[in-house]
Design brief:
Strand content: 15-25%
Helix content: 25-40%
Order of helices and strands: EEHHHHEEHHHHEHHHHEEHEEEEEHHEEE
Largest sheet: 8 strands, mixed
Radius of gyration: 24 Å
Distance between the termini: 52 Å
Organism: Tunturiibacter psychrotolerans
Protein name: OmpR/PhoB-type domain-containing protein
Number of helices: 15
Structural class: alpha+beta
Keywords: Membrane, Transmembrane, Transmembrane helix
Number of domains: 2
């Protein structure tokens, strides 16, 4: 069984159990490689490998060149100068090293060997008459064969489609994140090796513990796609009723059927999956006490007792709306005028009353907010990581996972008794090639417990 990852608006993903290249053993090898420990933490290298192999297996080796790779995978401008920007060369070099590592370790018994010969980017598959043993990996000298020389058992369905160049750059992060989470769950005991590390952390100790569960809520990015498609935000009340999925009014030029189809899909963002992966990697986190929930499956009672981590703004995680009435920094997406702003309800003398995200300019300025609030009963804490875009949410996550920045900030705001107050932190960052660059703190607020 293969998985097809379909790119939809807002860089979201849908998983369909459909064949991508039939039963071609070369593609099966590629899938094993990207799911291996050697590759699973490097989504960029996985997307590069799959992009190159897909083109090669589709008989499009002539389309493989540095220029097209930079434009398709690394969001470089059309006709950019590869002699100045060497991002493709640097990633290809890392890819060659990682492939070498794979075939000398977990892939030592593969019957097909895959390399990217230096001087080009076209994959080369080498057939072996029997599995390559680790002891033989250094002395074997198999005869290489080209892509065309190996048996091709693909189905007649065409491989390439309109979105294929775009989706490999983002979709592999879904495979990597999901596979890595599964790996961590299976090997949960290894993460318990330093149980005191979480207990000593001023923030994570409030959210994770062995005596309670922690709920992590991934955003409904299918909802944000629908909101962009219809030009209308969906309130929490509408989200709970589900009426928005059957009464969507699309913009001129489309149909209600298309809007309803988008509304029915269950998507989440790559950024959210990356955050979940990092949460599972925190040393000492009791993994068996963590629950991952899709925003659409949440209910109000889930926010009453245990600690919760909400990922994304109210646009994709409407549950954030429950806490916004007590927050100073609130996001507003004006679909009609294509503006995403952060409202500063009570600005200080040196602050702006509103900060507008730069969605179309060359800088692509984005904002992120980190908020620690009480849950609905006041019996636990709710951590909100949100942004004016996926890059904005990423900037918020980068801050909380970077102790060199987080801990000094928490030390600054801690109360006289040493505990943390509730707080909100506003960050500004730039969207660089779909990811957040280094952020700066614009402002923060605290509220005593």
């Amino acid at each position: 069984m293969y998985l097809r990852l379909r790119l939809m608006p807002e860089h979201t993903l849908q998983v369909d159990p459909e064949p991508v290249v039939g039963s071609d053993p070369r593609w099966e090898l590629v899938e094993r490689i990207v799911a291996s420990p050697s590759f699973i933490r490097s989504p960029r290298l996985c997307s590069l490998l799959m992009h190159l192999c897909e083109l090669a297996l589709a008989g499009r080796s002539d389309d493989i060149n540095e220029q097209s790779i930079g434009e398709a995978l690394f969001e470089r401008a059309r006709n950019y100068d590869p002699s100045i920007d060497g991002i493709v060369r640097s990633h290809a070099s890392r890819l060659r090293q990682r492939l070498e590592q794979y075939f000398s370790e977990e892939g030592a018994h593969e019957t097909i060997r895959l390399t990217i010969p230096k001087g080009g980017y076209t994959p080369l598959f080498e057939a072996h008459s029997r599995p390559l043993l680790r002891s033989e990996s250094a002395v074997s000298s198999p005869q290489p064969t080209s892509v065309e020389d190996l048996p091709d058992t693909r189905t007649s369905a065409p491989v390439a489609n309109t979105y294929r160049h775009l989706f490999w750059a983002t979709s592999i992060a879904l495979i990597a994140a999901c596979s890595f989470i599964g790996f961590l769950l299976v090997h949960a005991h290894s993460a318990q090796s330093s149980p005191g590390s979480v207990a000593k952390h001023p923030l994570w100790s409030m959210l994770f513990g062995t005596d309670h569960s922690t709920l992590i809520v991934a955003s409904d990015t299918g909802l944000t796609s629908l909101e962009a498609f219809t030009g209308k935000n969906v309130s929490l009340a509408e989200y709970l009723s589900g009426d928005y999925r059957t009464h969507a009014t699309p913009l001129t030029g489309t149909t209600p059927e298309i809007a309803e189809k988008i509304a029915s899909r269950r998507y989440t963002s790559i950024v959210d999956l990356d955050i979940v992966t990092k949460l599972y990697q925190i040393p000492g986190v009791p993994i068996n006490r963590m629950q991952l929930r899709y925003a659409r499956d949440l209910r109000p009672n889930d926010l009453k007792d245990e600690p919760v981590i909400l990922l994304g703004s109210a646009e994709g995680t409407p549950w954030v709306e429950l806490f916004e009435d007590k927050m100073n920094f609130v996001f507003v997406h004006d679909h009609q005028n294509h503006r995403f702003v952060v409202l500063n309800r009570l600005p200080h003398s040196n602050e702006q009353a509103r900060y507008e995200a730069d969605l179309n300019g060359p800088v692509h300025r984005v904002y992120g907010v980190i908020a620690l609030r009480p849950n609905m009963k006041g019996s636990g804490d709710v951590l909100v990581l949100e942004g004016t875009s996926m890059a904005g949410t990423e900037s918020a996550a980068d801050f909380v996972f970077d102790d060199s920045r987080l801990l000094p900030f928490l030390a600054t705001i801690k109360q006289n008794n040493g505990s943390l107050p509730y707080f909100e932190l506003l960050l500004q960052s730039n969207n660089m090639n779909g990811s957040a660059s280094g952020s700066e703190i614009l402002s923060y607020r605290t509220t005593a417990r």
